[in-house]
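Q: Could you fold this chain for me?
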Amino acid sequence: MSMAVNLAALSRLRDAMRMADAQVMLVDSGELLAWLTGYTVSETMYRACLVPLTGEPWMVLRKLDEAPCRRSSWLRDIVTYDDHQDPWECVAGSLMARGYQQTYLGADTHSYGMTVETWHQLAERLPDVIWRPMPGISDRLRQVKFSYELDALREAAHIADRAFLALKEQVKAGWRVRDVAALAARIFLSEGADTGETGPIVLSGGDSGFLHAQTHEEQLCDDDILHVELIPKVRHYSARLMRPFIFGGLSPARQNVATQLIAMQDAQIAAMKPGVRACDVDAILRNAVLKAGLRAEYGNVTGYSLGLYTRTPRPSDFSHCFTPAADWILEENMVFHMYTSAAGIAFSETVVVTEDGGVRMSRLPRAVIVV
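A: Sure. Below is the predicted structure, expressed as structure tokens.
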């Protein structure tokens, strides 16, 4: 990342700090660390970036992680501890050494790093600090994407496209579901994805319960529907794309479901413009699916935020998602995973919000893939 981009991210964070009356921000969300500093690491031991309203931010982490942090990040002030030392003591000591023992300290109380244990440990060591809770700030700051983020998401979407085309050419009846997943993983790695993690590839059935199934041992036969969701990451940024593979031919009934779902989702994507309420975008698809009788009920979201994913317990970002209760407003260059499903058939797209409506990052045709 360029220094200009880092300064823009830092400016967004400091604007939020002023709104919350925080003099220093404790950044321990894996995604926000990567977005702000260019470096992130797992929570094997506590680590954080401390950002003052003025002056240079600093990182506190294991000595073992110092070298990769210096290679990846623009930060110059890095405080380390050995594995036998107390990480919270090191964080507290770094604040006190810089004169912030009585500061107003901002913290994202929704961050996976800010556990009850972490808060207790830090509060005990910093008794004069006044905490400024900033719940959800780690996600909100990252919703509107910088140009380099959009570039990474497009790269990831094009890897998904190439993987789908390869699966279409090679997958045959008689393969195990596991064989399909293995091929997708190999393509991801050869095409430049960060990892071989594919996303759900499972036999489908019903309206939505199959979307998060995890079985891989079944053998594919005629009349099966194989649900394929590919989630390649490039520089931590994940694009996502779903298509159904139908074996042995496409019946008129299944074609009818697919045609309707695609048309309904196309209308939803076209409405994704700045200034539109998320619940209104959601209603375009949800109400159409229910009115057409494609589903008896529609309990899940119709889309959610996409962007940067690191090692956290959360594989998807629901901080901004599309439901009947979603009253937030779309902004230009937000990116979402928009998906819909019925009768075992699912389609999804990675979509960026523009003045002219939503734009798909994938180039893959919107159609059932018949094997």
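A (continued): The chain has two domains: 3-140, 147-370.
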